[in-house]
Write a structure and sequence with these properties.
The protein is of the alpha+beta class. It folds into two domains: 206 residues, Enolpyruvate transferase domain (UDP-n-acetylglucosamine1-carboxyvinyl-transferase, Chain, Alpha-beta prism); 207 residues, UDP-n-acetylglucosamine1-carboxyvinyl-transferase, Chain (Alpha-beta prism). The protein starts with a strand and ends with a strand. It binds uridine-diphosphate-N-acetylglucosamine. The site of uridine-diphosphate-N-acetylglucosamine has 21 residues, from helix 1, helix 5 and helix 6. Uridine-diphosphate-N-acetylglucosamine binds next to helix 1, helix 5 and helix 6. Cell wall formation. Adds enolpyruvyl to UDP-N-acetylglucosamine. InterPro entries: Enolpyruvate_Tfrase_dom (IPR001986), Enolpyruvate_Tfrase_sf (IPR036968), MurA_subfamily (IPR050068), RNA3'P_cycl/enolpyr_Trfase_a/b (IPR013792), UDP_GlcNAc_COvinyl_MurA (IPR005750). Belongs to the EPSP synthase family. MurA subfamily. It comes from Clostridium collagenovorans DSM 3089.
Length: 420
C-alpha cells in the first residue's frame, strides 16, 4: 500500500514523456494470443493492469517475458490451453473481459467469471454478449460465470445500442475467425479501437472502418508473428496538460497526439490555455495566462472523454466563475468531488451534473483516490493546494499511470511516494 504526498505551490517546467496507452495496451495484450505464435510488444508501460493481464495469459498457458528495463513484452501463445482464466485475477481487472473475444477467436469457446461492477458505474456486459450471440455462439450465464461456445462462428450484422469500447473490441476480435463478413454498426470510435484494428491487421486479420461508426471484419484468422508498438496515452497526456494549466506553468508534453486529444485541447483553448504543437507529437503548454470557466459534457469519442472529467473538475475548481460538468457515460463518476470539497473546492452535484464555483485557492488535506482518474485529479489539486495533500489508495492510480510521482518530480513538483 502506498500513499502520495504532494506539497503544493511549485511551478512546473521542462519536459514530460507520455507512455503507451493503458486502454490500447490491455486489449492488444489479450489479442496477442490469437495468432497461436509469438508477439513482441514495444514501449509497454509498467502498470498494475498490465501485470495482471500478463498473469491472466500465463494462467492460460502463455509464456510471458517482460523486459521491464526497455518495456518490451514477448508473448508466446503456442502452448495456450483452452482453459478458464483464474477468477481471482479476472476480478481484479474489469478490462480482462476482452480476453473473451480473443479466446473465442482462438478456440471457439471462452469462459470467464462475471466481471464485477465497478465504483464508477454498474458496467454491464449485455452488449458484448449480444454481439457474441449474433456471431452464432451460445452464451450461458451460471454460478457467476459467462461461457460462450460455438461450433463455428458466423459473420453477422450487429448494431450496438450504445458505442461500447469493450464490446466493440470483443466483437472485433471474435469476428476475425467467423465465417464470412461481420459488420459492427454504432461501433466505438476511440483511438484505442483503431489501434486494436491495426494490430489485428498486422497479424493478418481483415478489419476495415475502425475509427468510424461502421467496422467491417472479413473472417480471416490472424496468424502472423509480429512486433507492435501501441499508441500513446491520450489520457495521461491530457492529465499533464491540465497539470500545466492548474499550476500556471509552461511545460513540454512529448507523446501527445493532437488528433486523439481534439475535444480536450478544444476545451482548454476555450478556457484560454496556450497550446502549441511543435511536431512529432509534442505540445508546448503555457498555463501562465488567465483562464475562464467552461461547461463540459462527457461523450463517447470524439466527444469529451469521461476519463478526463475528474482532472477537469480539479482544474475548474480553481478557475473563477461557474462551470457545469455533465457526466453522461458512467452513472457514478463524481466520487472525486467530495474529496476536492475536503480541499476547499465549491462543487455541488445535481443529478448527473456538477456545478463548480471556482475558488481562489485549495488547501492540502488527507484524501482518498476512489478510482484511477479520481486519484489523478487529487494529485493535480495537490499541486496547487496550500500545504500538504496526502492521496491514499494509490494502487488505483498505479493501474493507469506509470511512475506518476517520478514524472511530476522531474518537472519540478514537490511530490513523494510513501510505503505504508
Ligand atoms: C473503456 C475504457 C475506460 C473508459 C470507457 C469509456 C478500457 C480498458 N477502459 O471502458 O477507461 O472510461 O471505455 O470511454 O478501455 N455499457 C453497457 N453495456 C455493455 C457495455 C457497456 O450498457 O455491454 C455501458 C457502460 O455501462 C457505460 C458505457 O456503456 O455506461 C460505456 O462503457 P464502455 O464504452 O463499454 O466502457 P469500457 O469498455 O468498460
Amino acid at each position: 500500500m502506498y500513499k502520495i504526498v504532494v506539497r503544493g505551490g511549485n511551478e512546473l517546467s521542462g519536459e514530460v514523456q507520455i507512455s503507451s496507452a493503458k486502454n490500447a495496451v490491455l486489449p492488444i495484450i489479450a489479442a496477442s494470443v490469437m495468432n497461436g505464435g509469438i508477439v513482441v510488444l514495444k514501449n509497454i508501460p509498467l502498470l498494475e493492469d498490465v501485470f495482471i493481464m500478463c498473469e491472466i495469459l500465463e494462467s492460460l498457458g502463455a509464456e510471458i517475458d517482460f523486459n521491464t528495463e526497455i518495456g518490451e513484452l514477448r508473448i508466446d501463445s503456442r502452448n495456450l490451453k483452452d482453459v478458464d482464466p483464474s477468477d481471482k485475477l479476472v476480478q481484479k481487472l474489469r478490462a480482462s473481459f476482452v480476453i473473451m473475444g480473443a479466446m473465442l477467436a482462438r478456440f471457439n469457446r471462452a469462459k470467464i467469471s462475471f466481471p464485477g461492477g465497478c465504483k464508477i458505474g454498474s458496467r454491464p456486459i449485455d452488449l458484448h454478449l449480444k454481439g457474441f450471440a449474433a456471431l452464432d455462439s451460445v452464451v450461458e450465464k451460471y454460478h457467476g460465470y459467462v461461457e460462450v461456445k460455438a461450433k463455428e462462428l458466423k459473420g453477422s450484422d450487429i448494431y450496438l445500442d450504445s458505442p461500447s469500447v469493450g464490446a466493440t473490441q470483443n466483437i472485433m476480435m471474435a469476428a476475425t475467425s467467423a465465417k464470412g463478413e461481420t459488420v459492427i454498426r454504432n461501433a466505438a470510435k476511440e483511438p484505442e479501437i483503431v489501434d486494436l484494428a491495426n494490430f489485428l491487421n498486422a497479424m493478418g486479420a481483415d478489419v476495415s472502418g475502425a475509427g468510424t461508426e461502421t467496422i467491417t471484419i472479413r473472417g480471416k484468422k490472424p496468424c502472423m508473428d509480429i512486433e507492435y508498438t501501441p499508441i500513446y496515452d491520450r489520457i495521461e497526456a491530457g492529465t499533464f496538460i491540465v497539470a500545466a494549466a492548474i499550476t500556471k506553468s509552461k511545460i513540454t508534453v512529448k507523446g501527445a497526439v493532437e488528433e486523439h486529444l481534439k475535444a480536450v485541447l478544444a476545451k482548454l483553448k476555450e478556457m484560454g490555455l496556450k497550446i502549441d504543437s511543435i511536431g512529432e507529437n509534442t505540445l508546448i503548454v503555457d498555463g501562465r495566462g488567465t483562464l475562464i470557466p467552461v461547461d463540459i459534457k462527457t461523450m463517447p469519442h470524439p466527444g469529451f472523454p469521461t476519463d478526463m472529467q475528474a482532472q477537469f473538475t480539479a482544474l475548474l475548481s480553481v478557475v473563477p466563475g461557474t462551470s457545469i460538468i455533465t457526466e453522461t457515460v458512467f452513472e457514478n463518476r463524481f466520487m472525486h468531488v467530495s474529496e476536492l470539497v475536503k480541499m476547499g473546492a465549491n462543487i455541488k452535484i445535481d443529478g448527473r451534473s456538477a456545478v463548480v464555483q471556482g475558488v481562489d485557492t485549495l488547501t492540502g488535506a488527507n484524501v482518498v483516490a476512489t478510482d484511477l482518474r479520481a486519484g489523478a485529479a487529487l494529485i493535480l489539486a495537490g499541486l496547487i493546494a496550500e500545504g500538504e495533500t496526502t492521496v491514499n489508495d494509490v494502487h488505483h492510480i498505479d493501474r493507469g499511470y506509470m511512475k506518476i510521482e517520478e514524472k511530476f518530480k522531474k518537472i519540478g513538483a514537490d511530490i513523494k511516494r510513501i510505503d505504508v
